[in-house]
């Protein structure tokens, strides 16, 4: 594998870093912005989920638009939108401005998550395609790590200086995303256009030049011949329409893509990432420990993404997906068990330690034992109001909760680890391989649209679920869904390891 190919793949997938950064940042932001704007649970859910909603729009159109205007040109627009979103979010003066700014960022990462694996699959070889497409997931988890570490530092030093306080810290958290966005924009100018796209646009000489520079003369010639054979076969085919995806020849790979695409999000991964700080606070470990646990979570993501990159072209796509999904199901059910065993009680002494205004209103609930989090939190909100409780829930839960926090931590980290070596990176590798050159942009865009729709719905309702169903029931639902997904994939999942895109098409489409 050439250094040039590695550099190109890393730069193109930096959009994934920005997606991960945005997702990680918001988990800390809502601890401050939510109470400041006095948001309801659904409003908080909308601020968090609105980028995923916007991403749906970008995903359905970005693949097709890139077929017309090129992968690189759209990626440049993506980088600009990321920068604009960071600035607008940092200066938001209302709930409406905040979610609109985040939706602009959603358009960016929706397009980036489709375009990057598509571009990398089109410039890499069959031997290293899985590893290179996985770089996007590596960048996503590096973005998570950077965001959680950034949030940890901002939370730690809030109040230590005149320019950083509880009123503006969330603006700094959001605004710092401008730095990687501008670096991404600059780096994209050093990336060539996709050779397979160039062939589709009849720019044969430029495509050959790109492949030769990236792979060397000998291997570049092999890739050129493979593309030319595939393009020649496509000449007799009609133009692509979305109804073509439902043709009998494509039906099987469409079902596989949809199953994996839905399962990746419906098991709750973005609920855990986007609300990580809030979830850890539910265990009663306190606000500071919740922020530091986010750093641990993102570190696990990085480690196991490297595991995926090492194994994906050795073990194959199918084993990683099956093993990882089974682990996800067990981890989520472990979390459900841990939360189900928790109890909650505030003593009179606990209440006297609280320093916020109105804490004496909790005295009526002193020494009352609760066996579920929903009843306890509802009584706390009834006494204090949503805004005061939202600002102080970490301290209240830390004092009241009796729970095996280590069990929850093991479950959450197990979920993150299993996702990081399976559904996270492998889904995008699989989608970039399954579909013929002519249908790839439309197929990936369509599945990514559904993937993002599921993601936005999960994020939107997650605060409501925690408030109305409770922690245990919420994680139990995710765990059962993951278990069902495992058995479905066991039945239908093909293996694409070590095969050229053209081989895969011959085996899965022609048949």
TrEMBL record:
InterPro entries in UniProt: MFS_dom (IPR020846), MFS_sugar_transport-like (IPR005828), MFS_trans_sf (IPR036259), Myo-inositol_Transporter (IPR050814), Sugar/inositol_transpt (IPR003663), Sugar_transporter_CS (IPR005829)
Family designation: Belongs to the major facilitator superfamily. Sugar transporter (TC 2.A.1.1) family.
Record SUPFAM superfamilies: MFS general substrate transporter
Annotated source species: Spongiivirga citrea
Annotated Gene Ontology cellular component terms: membrane
Domain Major facilitator superfamily (MFS) profile per the UniProt entry, residue ranges: 8-497
UniProt-listed PANTHER family: PROTON MYO-INOSITOL COTRANSPORTER (PTHR48020:SF12)
Cellular compartment(s): Membrane
UniProt name for this protein: Sugar porter family MFS transporter
Highest taxon of the lineage: Bacteria
Membrane topology designation: Multi-pass membrane protein
Ranges annotated as spanning the membrane: 44-62, 74-93, 99-120, 132-154, 169-191, 252-277, 289-312, 319-339, 407-430, 442-462, 474-493
Primary localisation category: membrane
GO MF assignments: transmembrane transporter activity
Keywords recorded for this protein, A-Z: Membrane, Transmembrane, Transmembrane helix, Transport
Pfam family, one: Sugar_tr
């Amino acid at each position: 594998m050439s250094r040039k190919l590695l550099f190109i793949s890393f730069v193109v997938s930096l959009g994934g870093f920005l997606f991960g950064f945005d997702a990680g940042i918001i988990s800390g932001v809502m601890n401050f912005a939510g109470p400041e704007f006095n948001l309801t649970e659904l409003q908080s859910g909308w601020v968090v989920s609105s980028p995923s909603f916007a991403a749906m729009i970008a995903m359905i159109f970005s693949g097709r638009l890139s077929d017309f205007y090129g992968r690189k040109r759209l990626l440049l627009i993506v980088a600009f939108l990321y920068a604009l979103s960071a600035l607008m979010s940092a200066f938001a003066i209302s709930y409406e401005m905040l979610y609109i700014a985040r939706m602009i960022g959603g358009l960016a990462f929706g397009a980036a998550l489709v375009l990057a694996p598509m571009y990398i699959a089109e410039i890499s070889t069959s031997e290293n395609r899985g590893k290179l497409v996985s770089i996007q997931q590596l960048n996503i988890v590096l973005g998570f790590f950077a965001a959680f570490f950034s949030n940890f530092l901002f939370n730690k030093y809030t109040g230590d200086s005149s320019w950083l306080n509880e009123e503006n810290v969330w603006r700094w958290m959001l605004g710092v995303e401008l730095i990687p966005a501008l670096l991404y924009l600059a780096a994209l100018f050093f990336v060539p256009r996709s050779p397979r796209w160039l062939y589709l646009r009849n720019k044969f000489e430029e495509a050959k030049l790109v492949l030769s520079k990236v792979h060397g003369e000998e291997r570049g010639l092999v890739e050129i011949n493979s593309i030319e054979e595939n393009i020649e076969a496509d000449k007799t085919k009609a133009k692509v329409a979305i109804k073509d995806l439902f043709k009998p020849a494509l039906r099987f790979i469409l079902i596989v893509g949809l199953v994996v695409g839905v399962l990746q999000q419906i098991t709750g991964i973005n609920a855990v990432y986007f609300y990580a700080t809030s979830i850890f606070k539910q265990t009663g470990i306190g606000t500071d420990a919740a922020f530091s646990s986010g750093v641990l979570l993102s570190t696990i993501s990085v480690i196991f993404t490297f595991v995926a990159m090492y194994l994906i072209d050795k073990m194959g796509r199918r084993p990683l997906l099956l093993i990882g999904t089974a682990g996800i199901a067990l981890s989520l059910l472990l979390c459900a068990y841990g939360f189900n065993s928790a109890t909650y009680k505030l003593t009179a002494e606990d209440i006297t330690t609280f320093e916020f205004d109105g804490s004496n209103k909790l005295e009526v609930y002193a020494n009352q034992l609760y066996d579920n989090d929903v009843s306890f939190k509802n009584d706390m909100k009834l006494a204090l109001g949503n805004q005061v409780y939202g600002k102080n829930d970490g301290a209240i839960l830390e004092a009241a909760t009796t729970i095996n926090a280590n069990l929850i931590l093991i479950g959450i980290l197990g979920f993150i680890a299993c996702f990081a070596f399976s559904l996270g990176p492998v889904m995008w590798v699989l989608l970039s391989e399954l579909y013929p050159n002519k249908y790839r942009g439309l197929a990936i865009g369509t599945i990514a649209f559904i993937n993002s729709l599921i993601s936005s719905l999960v994020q939107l309702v997650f605060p409501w679920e925690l408030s109305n169903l409770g922690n245990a029931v919420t994680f139990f639902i995710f765990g059962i869904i993951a278990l069902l997904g495992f058995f479905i994939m066991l039945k239908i999942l093909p293996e694409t390891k070590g095969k050229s895109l053209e081989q895969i098409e011959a085996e899965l489409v022609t048949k």
